[in-house]
Design goal:
Blueprint: E1 5-8, H1 14-25, E2 29-34, H2 38-48, E3 51-54, H3 60-71, E4 77-82, H4 97-125, E5 128-133, H5 137-140, H6 146-166, E6 171-176, E7 180-181, E8 199-200, H7 202-214
Parallel strand pairs: 1-2, 1-4, 2-3, 4-5, 5-6, 7-8
Helix pairs in contact: 1-7, 3-4, 4-6
Length: 216
C-alpha cells in the first residue's frame, strides 16, 4: 500500500540509503535527496521505484526547486527525514569562518529550510511527520568536533521546539541522537580510537525511524 511520499535528505549516503530502503519496504514512495552524489541517488531511486532530487539543503532556493519537483508527483508529502549532514574535525581555534558557517548551514539551517516548506503542506492535511537525525554529540559535545556538536545541539533544540509548536495540528516532530555510526563520518577513526564506544550500524538508525513512524 502506498503511504505517500517520504523525503530523505542526504539519502544517497550509508545512513540515508538505509533509511530510504526501510521506508520503501513499508510502502512509501521515497524521494532521495542528494547534493553531490547524483549517480548514487539515481541508482537508489531506480531500485526503490522512487525519485532522485539533487539540491543543497543549505540553499533555500534549491530546496524550493526540489519541493516544486515533489509537487509534480501528485502525492502527499507524509514524512521528512532530515538526514543531510557534514562533519568538521579539528581544533576549534584552527577552524575557518567558512568551515564553521558551512557546517551550521548544512546540519542546522538545512533542516530548517526543508521543514519550512514541508510544514505548510502538512498543516493543510493536519498530518505528517518530520524526523531530524541529530547526534549524541549534540547532547554531550565532542572534543575536536566543536562546530559539529554545536550544529547538532541546535538541531535537537529545533526539533523539541517545533514538536511543541506543531503537536496541536496533528504533525509529529522527532529527533534521533545515535552515537558512533560505523559509516560515513566515523570512517576516519581507527578501531582503537573507537574503543569503549557503542557502535551503531546505518540499519539501526533506519529501524529507529520506522519505530517512530509506527508510534505516531
Amino acid at each position: 500500500m502506498n503511504k505517500g511520499i517520504a523525503l530523505v535528505t542526504g539519502g544517497a549516503g550509508a545512513i540515508g540509503s538505509a533509511i530510504c530502503r526501510a521506508l520503501a519496504s513499508v510502502g512509501y514512495t521515497v524521494a532521495v535527496n542528494c547534493n553531490s552524489s547524483k549517480a548514487r541517488a539515481e541508482a537508489l531511486a531506480l531500485e526503490l521505484g522512487g525519485i532522485a532530487l539533487q539540491a543543497d539543503v543549505s540553499d533555500f532556493g534549491q530546496v524550493e526547486s526540489m519541493f516544486g519537483k515533489l509537487a509534480e508527483l501528485g502525492s502527499p508529502l507524509d514524512v521528512v527525514v532530515n538526514n543531510a549532514g557534514i562533519a568538521q574535525y579539528g581544533l576549534f581555534q584552527l577552524t575557518t569562518a567558512e568551515e564553521r558557517g558551512r557546517v551550521i548551514a548544512v546540519n542546522l539551517l538545512g533542516a530548517m529550510n526543508v521543514a519550512a516548506l514541508a510544514v505548510p503542506q502538512m498543516l493543510k492535511r493536519k498530518s505528517g511527520t518530520i524526523i531530524n537525525i541529530s547526534s549524541i554529540w549534540g547532547d554531550s559535545g565532542a572534543s575536536c568536533e566543536t562546530v559539529y556538536s554545536a550544529s547538532k545541539a541546535g538541531l535537537t533544540g529545533f526539533s523539541k521546539a517545533l514538536a511543541l509548536e506543531l503537536e496541536p495540528s496533528g504533525i509529529s516532530v522527532y529527533y534521533l541522537a545515535p552515537g558512533v555510526i560505523a559509516a560515513g563520518m566515523s570512517a576516519r577513526f581507527t578501531a582503537e580510537d573507537l574503543e569503549g564506544f557503542e557502535i551503531y550500524q546505518p540499519g539501526d538508525v533506519a529501524s529507529d525511524v520506522l519505530k517512530l513512524l509506527a508510534d505516531r
